């Protein structure tokens, strides 16, 4: 009996030894050999210092000047600094920001950037998410604050002097951001352009900055429907920025307004074009003035799409992370404009979207307007017609 027990224990011990050796043989290494040479061969370590010596190339690579890069780094460094461990040295805040900006600027996949910068695929995803959030959280109060009365009146004056539309706070529009289909979402994110998306809805100031943004609405919603379900809509409906001002050189008192296309409802605080059927001369003049001023938001969308190429690709991440990325891009746009001046952009009418096509996707129920809103639009129409006669 004892001999049998000894044999059993021996065989059991032997099997356990074989299992341990097998597990040890297949255990994943702590750092892949490719990533061990990050400091010698990684894109950041052999390129960043050279780029600093060539300002044009630095701008081409990061889509901003070195001084702007350093300004952002100083703001986010406390939020993205990690501690070294006994087993590995952490990725520096500067490299984290470089990886993030390169992702936004090129739209390259996490896997592609992982090989370029010699960090793991999962690490790139974490770095982009954390850094985008840190940029937005640390700088939004400086570069996208809630507008003060002074800021509002400055915008009104600039819209009038630069774009020829009085009493205007900003121009309003929405942009579909392409993304992969979220799990268990059905057709909620599938838009009329036949791809999955979330919606960026924004108001732009006359100098192409974003005054308000809201990200994350379902792609299947129209612009008017997206606005009607937004926090921005509730703010304006509850009287936010309910300010009136006389039109230039007149005693006509009108509220400050947003400018939008036919996809949006006519409201006391939103002016949209007259329907293009049977337009008279006065309505045509009004539509032209509104269209010329409203192009600012289209230019702002065009600028961020041209600069941050991730917006031309499908964002391969979760909905929450995609929203963080888009908000960060809008804020980066404001930062670059503030630090480096207004970008050059062609706002010719050829680049505008067709208003008639946009209106096909607006819900009629959401576009019901009050008599007050119609009267306000009529007052703007008569102002432009009288001004045109004087000229």
UniProtKB/TrEMBL annotation:
* Any Pfam family hit: DDE_Tnp_4
Q: Which UniProt keywords apply?
A: Hydrolase, Metal-binding, Nuclease, Nucleus
| Cofactor names | a divalent metal cation
Domain of life according to the entry: Eukaryota
* Positions with biased composition (Basic and acidic residues): 342-353
Query: Where does this polypeptide localize?
Result: Nucleus
Polar residues composition bias: which ranges? 354-369
Q: Which GO terms describe its cellular component?
A: nucleus
Q: What is this protein called?
A: (apollo) hypothetical protein
GO molecular function terms attached to this record: hydrolase activity; metal ion binding; nuclease activity
Presence of keyword Hydrolase? yes
The keyword Transferase is annotated on this UniProt entry: no
Q: Which family does it belong to?
A: Belongs to the HARBI1 family.
Q: Where are the stretches annotated Disordered?
A: 342-369
Domain DDE Tnp4 residues, every copy? 172-334
């Amino acid at each position: 009996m004892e001999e049998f027990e000894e044999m059993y224990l021996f065989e059991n011990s032997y099997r356990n030894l074989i299992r341990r050796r097998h597990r040890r043989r297949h255990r994943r290494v702590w750092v892949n050999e490719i990533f061990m040479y990050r400091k010698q061969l990684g894109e950041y370590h052999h390129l960043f210092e050279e780029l600093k010596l060539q300002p044009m190339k630095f701008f081409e690579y990061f889509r901003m000047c070195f001084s702007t890069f350093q300004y952002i780094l100083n703001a986010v460094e406390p939020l993205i600094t990690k501690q070294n461990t006994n087993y590995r040295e952490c990725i520096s805040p500067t490299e984290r920001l470089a990886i993030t900006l390169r992702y936004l600027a090129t739209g390259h996949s996490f896997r592609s950037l992982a090989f370029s910068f010699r960090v793991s695929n999962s690490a790139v995803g974490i770095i982009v998410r954390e850094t985008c959030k840190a940029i937005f959280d640390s700088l939004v109060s400086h570069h996208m604050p809630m507008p003060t009365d002074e800021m509002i009146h400055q915008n009104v004056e600039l819209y009038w002097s630069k774009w020829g539309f009085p009493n205007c706070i900003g121009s309003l529009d929405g942009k579909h951001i392409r993304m992969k289909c979220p799990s268990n979402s059905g057709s909620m994110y599938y838009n009329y352009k036949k791809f999955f998306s979330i919606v960026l809805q924004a108001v732009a100031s006359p100098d192409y900055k974003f005054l308000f943004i809201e990200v994350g609405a379902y792609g299947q919603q129209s612009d008017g429907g997206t606005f009607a379900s937004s926090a921005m809509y509730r703010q304006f409906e509850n009287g936010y920025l309910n300010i009136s001002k006389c039109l230039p050189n007149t005693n006509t008192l009108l509220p400050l307004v947003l400018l939008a296309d036919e996809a949006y409802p006519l409201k006391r605080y939103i002016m949209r074009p007259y329907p293009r059927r049977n337009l008279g001369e006065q309505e045509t003049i009004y539509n032209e003035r509104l269209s010329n001023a409203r192009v600012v938001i289209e230019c702002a969308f065009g600028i961020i799409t041209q600069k941050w190429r991730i917006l031309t690709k499908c964002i391969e991440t979760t909905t929450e992370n995609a929203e963080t990325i888009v908000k960060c891009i809008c804020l980066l746009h404001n930062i670059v404009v503030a630090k480096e001046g207004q970008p050059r952009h062609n706002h010719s009418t050829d680049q505008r979207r067709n208003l008639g096509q946009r209106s096909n996707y607006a819900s009629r129920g959401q576009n019901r307007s009050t008599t007050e809103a119609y009267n306000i639009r009529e007052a703007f129409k008569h102002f432009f017609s009288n001004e045109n006669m004087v000229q």
